[in-house]
Amino acid sequence: MRSLLLLVFAAPLVAACSGPARTQEIPPMNTSTAIAPCLWFQGEAEEALHFYASVFDGAKITREIRAGDGGPMPKGAFIAGRIAVRGHELMVLNGNPKPGFSQSISISVACRDQAELDRYWSALTKGGKAIACGWLEDKYGVAWQIVPERLEAMLADPDPAKAQRTMAAMLTMTKFDCAALERAYTGK
């Protein structure tokens, strides 16, 4: 619970403790995304924000917060920002006291087709690494799951044979092959 409270309250506290902050004013946060994951970086948050905006189609940076006068950070230093992707927001923050991220949390991206899956996989593994079963770690150490949109439905199919064939095929893959998963699912 303590970690959750830190995550929820950290950005406003960091902003408040850094003196008067200057915010790039963009329309107010969409209330449908009032709950957004916040990724803590050790100084690479602004770079990561712009990198993620370049990776995802239609992504838009919705907020950038910079340090003002009188705080512990130099005036103009990037504190935090938000990016909107497909109706969801992700927040980035400079303030991680420890290096790296944990794979116990990852960001899942459901892809419409193999081309979209390949594009995201290629962009996010550049400087990062492939892990297994659709998981990868980007160059910042953030874990991602790049998966076909239909995968969950295939794995939850009421026909256990279809679900088991899909799972067996999935477990052999690092980056997902949509056609191979469909063949396993249909038994062809």
Class computed from helices, strands and strand pairing: alpha+beta
Strand count, sense and closure of the main sheet? 5 strands, mixed
Shape: elongated
Q: Count structural domains.
A: 2
The stretches of 5 or more residues where confidence is low (pLDDT under 50) are: 1-32
Helix content: 25-40%
CATH class division of the largest domain: Alpha Beta
CATH structural fold name of the largest domain: Signal recognition particle alu RNA binding heterodimer, srp9/1
Radius of gyration from the alpha-carbon trace, in angstroms: 19 Å
Number of helices: 6
CATH architecture of the largest domain: 2-Layer Sandwich
DSSP, total strands: 9
Q: Please state how the strands of the largest beta sheet are arranged side by side.
A: 1-3-4-5-2
Question: Overall mean pLDDT score?
Answer: 85
Throw out a few tags for this protein.
188 residues; alpha+beta; Signal recognition particle alu RNA binding heterodimer, srp9/1; 2,3-Dihydroxybiphenyl 1,2-Dioxygenase, domain 1; 5-stranded mixed beta sheet; 4-stranded mixed beta sheet; 6 helices; 24% strand
Description:
The structure is a single chain. The protein is an alpha+beta fold and 188 residues long. The chain has helices at residues 2-17, 45-55, 114-125, 151-155, 160-170, 178-186; strands at residues 22-24, 38-41, 60-66, 78-85, 88-94, 107-111, 129-130, 135-137, 143-148. Strands 1-3-4-5-2 form a five-stranded mixed β-sheet, sandwiched between helices. Strands 6-9-8-7 form a four-stranded mixed β-sheet, covered by helices on one side. β8 (135-137) and β9 (143-148) form a beta hairpin. The protein starts with a helix and ends with a helix.
